[in-house]
Amino acid sequence: MAGLQSLKQKARQLVLGNIAPARQVTLNQRRIYILPGIAGILWLLVAFLLFLMAVNYANSLAFAMSFFMVSLFMLAILHTWRNLAGLTIRSLGGDPAHVGQPVRVKLEIDGHNRERIAIKVGWPDHENLNVDTLDSTQIDLRITGQKRGWLSPGLLRIESLYPLGLCKTWSWLSLETGVLVYPAIDDRLPLPLSQNANGTQTGAIMLGQEEFAGVRRYQAGDSSGHVDWKGFARRHELNTKIFDQPVGLDCMLSLNDTPGHELEDKLPVLTAWCLRCERQKRPYGLSLPGVSISPGMGQRHLSECLQSLALFQVKSFQVESFQIQTDAEHA
Amino acid sequence: MPDTHQLEEGISRTSVIWLLVAQVMVLLPLRSVLPVPLLAIALLSVIWRLTLWYGRSFWPPLWLRAVLIVMALGTVVISFQPLLTLESMVSVLAVAYSLKLLEMRYRRDALVVVYIGFFVVTTSVLFSQSLLQAAWLVLCLVVLIAAQQGLYRRTDFLPVASSLRYGLVLVLQAVPLTVVLFILVPRLDPLWSVPQPDYSATTGVSDRMAPGDIARLSQSDELAFRAVFDGSLPPATERYWRMVVMDQFDGKSWYQSSTTDLASKGIAVTEWQQDQRQPADWWLQQPNGYRYEILLEATGFPWLVTMGPAAESQGRFLLLRTMRLEAGSRLYERQVYSVSGSSPVFTDDLPDWLRKLNLQLPRGNPQARRTARRWMLQAKGQPEQLAMRIMRFFQEQGFVYTLSPPLMAGESIDRFLFSEQQGFCAHYAGAFVFMMRSAGVPARVVSGYQGGELKPEQNMIQVRQFDAHAWAEIWVRGKGWVRYDPTTAIAPERISADLQTALGLEGGFLNEKPLSLLRYRQVPLLNQFRLFYENLEYRWQRTVIDYQREQQQALLKQWLGADQLQWRQTTLLVVVVLMVLGGSSLLLLYRRDKKDELSRLYSRFLGKLRRSGVQLQDGEGELSLARRIETEHPELSDAVWAFIREYIQCRYASHKTVEARQIKSLKIRLNSVR
């Protein structure tokens, strides 16, 4: 099944050519396809039956009716096509999320002052929305990122059957989402402790120095080991125990500390560690081949680390322009 | 507003209402065609769907739908004999259309409903193609299209006015192409024979006349035919439109001899009917000066109407010895035919078999027979004297002309003549012929129409069913068949004016049609409206409905010349269709964006500056450009500032859309920049 999908995707690429993805695409004649659907073929069949009736009864009004249906069919082609023609789709990005978590991609659809009705927008196999617009309209499309890096769910499909459903018009767009997908969170492993400068402390001592500071509402990504299970049994609230970490114990996270062989297994672990350090208010830095982020804390620091993890060794295009974009958003 | 609704294949509640309205509208013209139980089932379906809509009901289970289908089919089988008629097929279609409502859950079903709707609404034009029906058809189309487009709209949002407008706009946009196809697509001859509409329920002159039959026609204001004259119009007393000639009487009703009956009596078919190829030599002909075209509405019978006796066959029709025309088959469509009038001149006496045929009488009515023979003796054997005597009898005895005479059973002629003494034209004509025959004068009853409404602006006489009339013809040696209308003796206004006048206060005219405009001919405004509408209807029928193969050929020959007509027709069709399609796509798709217009003007402005040696620098806005020009090229400054100020005003200052007026003034400013 997956093979078939990728084959389809490849065929589309072949037909459409390798269009470089862009943040904004305006549909012109060359991008819009139109074909009569089953409803349209049935419509012509009804018109033909009426024609036969008109011939056999030599009935002028029946002739007129049959010709009217044919005319309307031709008109429907124009109207349906017009529904998409000149439409502009703009990606407004969206908040980053981890692999496996739903992402909302904000799209702006600009009809340029022409009424557009019932336009179906969406990536195949993901959420599709039905939009009416005159000027510009914003929609959120929910997608679950399957791979870290810039979210690219393939070609965006825009289609419309309006007004009469006789023809289906559609277009495939190569649209940059501008949404970053962080690696998944693998929170099964404790923080590495050998990163301290003197290197003498052990895990046990480290754990002992954690001081219980209270509880807060459970968040996705929290370690199951820190969940307040007793409290959950009593109050049915899922909370996470928070431990204060003594300041000054910087944690330098590196690929070398993670177990496993595959990069894609290691990155989720690092991601989880970053999140845990941030949660535990322990300064952390990141060291990857070619990337080095000095220890720090805070939302911006976390974003920077997660972005580095997301984009680490990802073949990508125009990454820099996105970085500017996302930085600007965070600022 | 972002739409958070998932695209679903269901039907919105508003769409359901649209479909129900469309359904009721589509079925309305068929109410007289469908048997009453089917109408009930259709109504039930609509009501059930409505209760579903209100959430007060459940989807009918399969068994219930099956029961309804069986009931509907049973009704069809019982109601229609023979089974395979146009009416029965339309009924099945209409009931399927109704019952489909009860399983209409998804858009797919709704689409089927709409498509059947398109089909059903077209079947209703097989029964009537009047202007009113056509207008209703257009209205149905608008609603059907509005319903169909509603299926594809966002499901929770379907405004009535905009949907209707959209339907109307689509219909109007489709009109040009429809007209082109209507005129140019070659008309074919019928491919196979189809069951024709049943005309038995419609009123019209029949070939069998019981005394009350014609009185029944006086209740109908339906159009019978129109006669458009080329040249002079006949005077009122000449407007006897002959249709059927009844020479046989069975004691109750008069009827026509059929060719097969005569053939079985050993009479050659050519003695009775002849066509163009073997012109009749039964009589001599002389032209009577009237040339006219008849537009006869479909009757379901083969006979045709002519003014006065037909002396020769016209066009493709048969001439019958009774001096009337007949088509080879029953007429299910309107007929248009020209008659160049000629009257027969009789030199020979009747052949014996024909004389015998026109003297046939059944037993009975002794008093009428005796009286006729007595008067014949008094008239010294002169048929015309006898006829005058009978007419005088009607006049002197105070006979009453009425639409509602008492029932005269048994010896009907005797009872009419000597005891009841009131009746309608059929009574008088029948009694008159009976008495003439009793006295040995060959005579027959002729039925058709008398009079009609004059339409001077079209040189036309329009005849309706209530103009139906019956009169008599007798054979006078040396003169031939002579027309006598006994009604003139009792109600001369019937002939000189019309039925309504003749009936006077006694009334009965169009009693069953209180809303018929024809009842109110005395009200000037209503009458004017009626005349206007009839005129419109006439033009509609002549231009659109009568546009068939022959008319198409004639028109195209006139336009394109006769040689290679088919090839030229095809070329013209393709070219015009492409032109209309191209035109509408340009109209639909080409839309000047006012903002784009501004950008175009600005780039033209920059082009002009470039030619004057000013280059736009990186990141230079409109204002900084103008300031730089002020210092570098002072001679351009004024015009540039004028343009830039207005441009900025259009581009950035106004939130509203840019108007054409602003673009125009901006262009003037641009032109002043050198």
Structure summary:
The complex is a heterodimer of chains A (331) and B (674). By secondary structure, chain A is of the alpha+beta class. Chain A is built from 8 helices and 17 strands.
Describe the structure.
The complex is a heterodimer of chains A (331) and B (674). Chain A has helices at 2-16, 38-57, 60-84, 203-209, 229-235, 263-279, 299-311, 319-330; strands spanning 24-26, 33-36, 88-91, 97-98, 102-110, 116-122, 128-133, 136-144, 149-150, 156-160, 167-173, 180-182, 211-217, 239-244, 251-254, 284-288, 291-296. With 331 residues, chain A is α+β, with helices and mostly antiparallel strands. In chain A, the strands form 5 sheets. Chain A has a 5-stranded antiparallel β-sheet with strand order 2-11-10-6-7. Chain A has a 4-stranded antiparallel β-sheet with strand order 1-3-5-8, with no helix packed on it. A 3-stranded mixed β-sheet of chain A has the order 4-12-9. In chain A, helix 2 (38-57) packs antiparallel against helix 3. Chain A starts with a helix and ends with a helix. Residues 194-209 and 317-331 of chain A have low confidence and may be disordered. Chain B is an alpha+beta fold and 674 residues long. Chain B has 25 helices and 18 strands. The chains are: A alpha+beta (331), B alpha+beta (674). Chains A and B meet through helix 2, helix 3, strand 6, strand 7 and strand 8 of A and helix 5, helix 6, helix 7 and helix 21 of B.
Features:
heterodimer, A: 331 residues, alpha+beta, five-stranded antiparallel beta sheet, four-stranded antiparallel beta sheet, 8 helices, 17 strands, 35% helix, disordered C terminus, B: 674 residues, 25 helices, 18 strands, 49% helix, 13% strand, elongated, transmembrane (chain B), EC 2.3.2.13 (chain B), transferase (chain B), Transglutaminase-like (chain B), Bact_TGase-like (chain B)
